[in-house]
Design a protein that fits this description.
Blueprint: H1 3-9, H2 14-31, H3 35-47, H4 49-66, H5 68-72, H6 77-100, H7 103-122, H8 133-150, H9 155-162, H10 168-192, H11 198-221, H12 227-245
Length: 249
């Protein structure tokens, strides 16, 4: 086994990172959201925000071959295209913030955003805006900034889509398509800013397969009629991840 891979296995807390990756993949596969909300608080607490964002972006590569092909068949491609185009405006800003921000502050920020998103979802918050091009541009740009800075590519999109009127299957597919492709765009942005480190890539060799297995399992479990159950499970996993990862421990 290569020495860098052995070093990755020796990272303190790597087991929790792998557990979080598996849980993130499972939630993403059956609910279409929650991967970063579960993974990022745990990973940022164990390996640091920059490495955690790199890992989250690498996990998006696994989604390309596990859940994206099926999702593209049901996704709203027009909306997804607008969201992705707008995210290109926000991503560089977010990655720059990740580069210059204090790691401890970023950990608090990641936990705060995840917790706030969870509270809004559990409370049943509903937006009043329509799916206009302007709203989609705003959601895409905001997702880019937040995703680049914290790795949490999903909160804005999740709140926007889950509070709409589309079917569970379409929401799941559109969310998967956007978040997966946004994660892929994040990798080159991190590289341009000089934030991709060899240690994180070796750790990704361990994390990505675990995430992929979780995503495939979750996708196999998905049944549209069980939408409420999927959401409750995802909410529970997000809450547990946030509670475990608060910088007070």
């Amino acid at each position: 086994m290569p020495d860098p891979l052995l070093a990755a296995l020796a990272v303190p807390g790597v087991v929790w990172v792998l557990v979080a990756a598996g849980a993130a993949g499972l939630a993403y596969g059956f609910a279409g959201f929650g991967a970063a909300l579960i993974f990022m608080p745990v990973a940022a607490a164990r390996v640091g925000p920059v490495e955690a964002v790199t890992l989250e972006a690498c996990m998006g590569l696994a989604s390309v071959v596990t859940v994206l092909p099926r999702a593209l068949k049901l996704a709203d491609t027009r909306d997804t295209g607008i969201l992705l185009a707008a995210s290109l405006i926000g991503l560089p800003v977010g990655v720059w913030l990740l580069k210059v921000a204090d790691p401890e502050a970023m950990r608090w920020g990641i936990c705060a955003v995840a917790a706030a998103t969870l509270c809004a979802l559990v409370a049943g918050w509903r937006r009043k805006t329509r799916d206009s091009a302007g709203a989609l541009l705003g959601v895409g740009a905001a997702s880019g900034v937040l995703g680049g800075a914290t790795g949490l590519t999903g909160p804005v999109m999740i709140l926007f889509k889950l509070s709409g009127k589309a079917s569970a299957a379409e929401v799941r597919a559109s969310t998967i398509a956007f978040l997966t492709l946004l994660s892929m765009l994040l990798l080159p942005m991190l590289w341009v800013q000089g934030l991709i480190r060899a240690e994180a890539l070796w750790l990704a060799v361990l994390v990505v397969p675990v995430y992929a297995v979780g995503a495939l399992t979750g996708q196999a479990l998905f049944r549209p009629q069980n939408e409420a159950l999927y959401r409750r499970v995802a909410y529970g996993l997000i809450g547990l991840a946030v509670a475990m990862s608060l910088p007070v421990w």
